[in-house]
Write a structure and sequence with these properties.
Blueprint (H helix, E strand, L loop, with lengths): L1 H14 L6 H41 L1
């Protein structure tokens, strides 16, 4: 729900991008989006490391 609203807001702002009022807000949203992207990547990395660790432990037990 939150992400859908986020993308809707960005699309609405892109339509009004020529209007000077929305420029700072759009820049702010782009910064937020970028930070969100990095958070997702770090969470994914943590998850992969966690799965790899569990998989490694299972492999040690079976072999």
């Amino acid at each position: 729900m939150g992400t859908h609203f986020h993308f809707m807001a960005i699309n609405i702002l892109k339509n009004y991008e020529s209007k000077k009022v929305f420029q700072p807000l759009l820049k702010f949203l782009k910064i937020l989006q970028l930070n969100y992207f990095y958070v997702k990547i770090s969470l994914l990395k943590t998850l992969i490391e966690f799965i790899y660790m569990i998989h490694g432990n299972i492999s040690k037990k079976t072999h």
